[in-house]
Design a protein that fits this description.
This protein has 220 residues and is α+β, with helices and mostly antiparallel strands. It is 28% helix and 31% strand. Helix 2 (94-104) packs parallel to helix 3 (123-140) and helix 4 (162-171) packs antiparallel against helix 5 (200-210). It holds the Pfam family Impact_N.
Length: 220
């Protein structure tokens, strides 16, 4: 079975993301902050890792400052994304923040940019550069890690090939190995496990090359 994810948006216009890598994603490992003054307005960008949309709203509630002039934001969780201009002219705050997230290649992240107005208007172009710029700077040197997605796999294997199978599974560092003898077939067992997305094809090829007969693979 192949699972597909869909985009979601509510209070904003979504921007398609082109930086997701199938089978892996790059999240932040901790919250980061960047501050800059632009024409007497103070901009504070706060970025933090997310688990889902609910955690995005919790993060926003935690870091937003009700005393500020604007609390603009954007987040990305896989193919789900939202952004909000929070009173700035449409498209001048949330969308530039979203573009900064997309350009960074970071996933499952939210960036809130807080603005304290200093008395000088920046204009449409100035706002786009300010919000997008501080968001980009906030993410530029942020600590990240690479998380690989796991692919559930299973196969039916004769008892006499279990030794070969387990040797290969150990070599590919698979997880959650389970064995079921109730297959309804004589001398055949079902083995299920999870393997890194980018190693699934290599594992399948290694098993086919090292076993003397065909093995039926099941991918979910």
């Amino acid at each position: 079975m192949v699972a597909t994810s869909s985009s979601s948006s509510s209070s904003s216009t979504p921007t398609p993301s082109n930086n997701s890598t199938a089978g892996a994603f790059t999240p932040l490992t901790q919250r980061v902050t960047f501050e800059k003054e632009i024409k007497k307005s103070k901009f504070i960008a706060i970025a933090g890792p997310l688990f889902d949309e609910r955690s995005a709203m919790s993060f926003l509630s935690e870091v937003r400052d009700p005393r500020a002039t604007h609390n603009c934001w954007a987040y990305k969780v896989g193919d789900q994304f939202r952004s909000n201009d929070d009173g700035e002219p449409s498209g001048t705050a949330g969308k530039p923040i979203q573009s900064a997230i997309d350009s960074s290649g970071i996933d499952r992240v939210m960036v809130v940019v807080i603005r304290y107005f200093g008395g000088i208007k920046l204009g449409t172009g100035g706002l786009v550069r300010a919000y997008g710029g501080v968001a980009a700077e906030c993410l530029r040197n942020a600590p990240t890690c690479v998380v690989k997605s796991k692919v559930p796999m299973g196969l039916e294997v004769p008892y006499d090939l279990l030794g070969v199978l387990y040797h290969q599974l150990q070599s590919f560092q698979v997880e959650d190995i389970r064995q079921d003898y109730d297959t309804g077939k004589d001398n055949v067992t079902m083995v299920t496990f999870k393997v890194d997305f980018d190693r699934a094809q290599s594992l399948e090829e290694a098993l086919m090359a090292n076993c003397s007969r065909d093995i039926v693979f099941y991918k979910r």
